Each structure stands twice: as structure tokens, then as C-alpha cells.
Amino acid sequence: MKTIVKRIFLTxxxxxxxxxxxxSYKIYNYSFEYSEEKSDVILVLGTSIKDGKxxxxxxxxxxxxxxxxxxxVSKHLLFTGGLGKGQNKTESSVAKEYALSKGIPEEAIFIxxxxxxxxxxxxxxxxxxxxxxxxxxxxxxxxxxxxRAMAFANYYKMDCNPSPTKTTAFQSxxxxxxxxxxxxxxxxxx
Length: 190
Hints:
five-stranded parallel sheet
């Protein structure tokens, strides 16, 4: 009896491992999908801030959004992200301050301040985009985050294209591997 139970657990473990590897492969390959297609809005996904300032990861996302805006891909930037644990400013309001300091006009910037996860980024952004009559979005995030982000965009039936940052803060092997592992775990439980 113990041998059968052991085989069942080994088989299940092997299947889970294969699924995990397959999802990692899909996430890695999708990280190269890139668009600069004209859109109603450039949607920059939020991430943690520190002491009211953008983190290195968020700064690169915002910079990429600014690059796309300056290139004329869209006339609007939309930053997402609510109040993080221990913070007194929302992620999106800090992103707006940063973009304003880089010369982006205030009337070009919209913020979504309720979300606390990628799922909520899209849930609340969909509502905001509908209220503003924005139909298309170019989604900006880190390359390995893009597959999961676009899964949520598809879930909410949003017309989005991926535009991952080219200057992610995850440059060396260990941070990249950790980011890929993290994204694979969360993508696998969707």
C-alpha cells in the first residue's frame, strides 16, 4: 500500500513539475512580445513604492511609458496602483508625480488608485477606461510579468497589446531567475 501511495505522490509531483517548467517556458517566450501600436492609452502597471518614491522596478515601467508617450503612441498615460502596506501615498499618485517631473502634462495623466494586485489593476482600470471611452491600451510592465498581466486583460475582455520594459531592473541572473520563478508560481495558479 505504501508503494502505491508513494508512486501516486511521485507521479503527481512529476506532473506539477512538468506544468511548472512548461509555464516558465511560456512566460519566458512571451517576455519578448513587444508592441508600440497606437492606442487610446498607455497603461503602466503599478508595483511597490518606498517612502513615497518610485522603486527601481516601477521607475523603469514609468520611463518606458514616458518613452512611448513621447514617441506619440498615445496621448494618454494611465498609472495603476493603490495604497501599499505602510505607505501614505498610492503607487499611481507617486508615478504621476514622477511623470510630471519628467515633463508630461497633467492633462495627459490618469491614475487608478484602488488596486492592490495585478488582478485588481485590470479590474479597476477596465472601469476607468470604460468611463473615459478608451477602447485600446498598450500595457507596460516587466517582461516576465507580461504573460500574467495579459491573461488578466483577456479575462476582462480588454483590447490590449504588450509593451514590456526594455530596461527592467532585473538585469543579472539571480534577480531574473527569481522574477521568472515568482511569475511562474502566480501564473500557474491562475
